[in-house]
Amino acid sequence: MISARKTYIIANWKMNFTPGEASLYLHRLSNRIPAMRNVQVVLSPSLVSLQPLSLQINRRQFKLAAQNFYWQDYGAFTGEVSISQIRSFVDYAIVGHSERRYLFNESDKDIAQKVAAAIRNGLTPVLCIGETAEERRNGETSAAIYDQLIGGLSQVSEEDISKVIIAYEPVWAISSNKNARPAKPEDIKEAQLLIRRHISKLYGDETAMDLPILYGGSVNPSTAPGYLNIPGIDGLLVGNASLIADSFCAIVESAKGKYDER
Ligand code: PGA
Predict the structure, then answer these.
(1) Whether 206 is catalytic
(2) pTM for this predicted structure
């Protein structure tokens, strides 16, 4: 039987676009990307654009994701925004992105609290994990991935693990890093198997098979089809290439093509 697994294409716009620019860009994308049954396109603008875009989007066509939030639901936390304040605008929340881990010193404990807050507020956390270049050189990829999984999922029960998406984003492949180089499909295939093996130890075989795992790091229109064909890879998290309509639409098109061919 042909698998009915969904493919996720998540655009991480990072700290780009004013609300006006984001709105214009969304308008351009919405003219080119259809609502699809098997491909879920998720846009992650910066916080300030979430509310206006949530009024503009057709939720059958696109969903929104938060790039960041604070894990407490309310209280005296000057300058922070909680997920309970934005939950009506978004369906997904990116958690544990390497830029947050390494530029803003987010620990596995912070990340675990954010994963739990997202689930508590009815959202799907997209937990980003991945080894650094140094960890890879030292043969510590499996250990790094395991630690980030154990850490990030430490508050997730067996019942809730089905609400989580994992994004494998090796730090050395993310375009914002100096000397970034795209991961080879073999590397991604291997990491995806490692993740499923670790998840199987933590939550059992069935959960490990069902868990959506995405790849992110220097994805562009020419590499996307190959990545999407890796068995066990359920989609892509796209940074730079998601900021250009032609590139992003081409990536979405290759995800759609997977189903059209069947
Ligand atoms: P990139 O970013 O596609 O620009 O490498 C991916 C990410 O940081 O999620």
Answers:
(1) no
(2) 0.96
